Amino acid sequence: MSADLFIRSYYKDFRWLAYCLKSIERYAHGFRDVILVVPASSAQRLSWSGLGRTVTTHICDEFPDDYLGQQVTKMLADHYSDADFICHVDSDCIFRRHITPFDLISGERPIMPMVAYSALRHDKGWQRLSERFMRHAVEFDFMRRQPFVYPRWIYSSLRDYSMRVHGMSLPAYILSQPRRGFSEFNAMGAYAYYHHFRDFSWLQTDFVERDQSICRWFWSWDRISAEDQDEIASILMG
């Protein structure tokens, strides 16, 4: 069983990315590779000085709206990695404990935390977006814990679903949505739950807050404050 870590980033998140990669070096073991994908304009600003580990870097297309564009890239992750499992982590997530792929995968089934939308007060907007994509009711939110782990085969299957249901490629569907009009891992999670239930290990929780037991989940649209730096330093020294 092979598993790659996959990060889609861009230049505004590179300060966060440096910390993320340092946390991977500190805590992530047994992963075959770290795949980093950035647009060409961001690639010119990459500097790996002091990051320590080897990262396989790829260049993706430029997008007028990179919020949607980065979701397109993630839904094409199997074009960049041929691992059995692809483990997505965002640039602003910091690993906080030692993990291996076996913490994320049970047997050959990815562990998928989820929570019912009925338990959530403020995150139900993702439900509407998921239902628009799936074209049926969606009961659960699937963006509960990073990394998000999927088997390589599901990416092409999801793209086929988009063609069947929407009559357009998945990238075209994503880019046709309004800003913040798509949730890639909720779409992927809903598709997995309703169409490939037995291929995953589902972990339903009642916790409203996102699970940060593996990764501390920051918010890259905010500046890295002095408090953030102190917290990250403490994590990396743990």
Write structural notes for this entry.
With 238 residues, this protein is an alpha/beta fold. The chain has a single domain (3-237), classed as Spore Coat Polysaccharide Biosynthesis Protein SpsA, Chain A (Alpha-Beta Complex), CATH 3.90.550. Helix content is 34%, strand content 21%. Strand 2, helix 2 and strand 3 form a beta-alpha-beta unit. The protein is globular and about 45 Å long. The two termini are 29 Å apart. The model has no long low-confidence stretch (mean pLDDT 93).
Index terms:
238 residues; 8 helices; alpha/beta; five-stranded mixed β-sheet; Spore Coat Polysaccharide Biosynthesis Protein SpsA, Chain A; four-stranded mixed β-sheet; 11 strands
How would you characterize the largest beta sheet?
5 strands, mixed
**Count of strand segments:** 11
**Which structural class best describes the helix and strand composition?**
alpha/beta
The CATH topology, please? Spore Coat Polysaccharide Biosynthesis Protein SpsA, Chain A
The ordered string of helix (H) and strand (E) elements is EHEHEHEEEEHEEHHHEEH
Strand order of the largest sheet: 3-2-1-4-9
Q: Given this structure, which CATH class is correct?
A: Alpha Beta
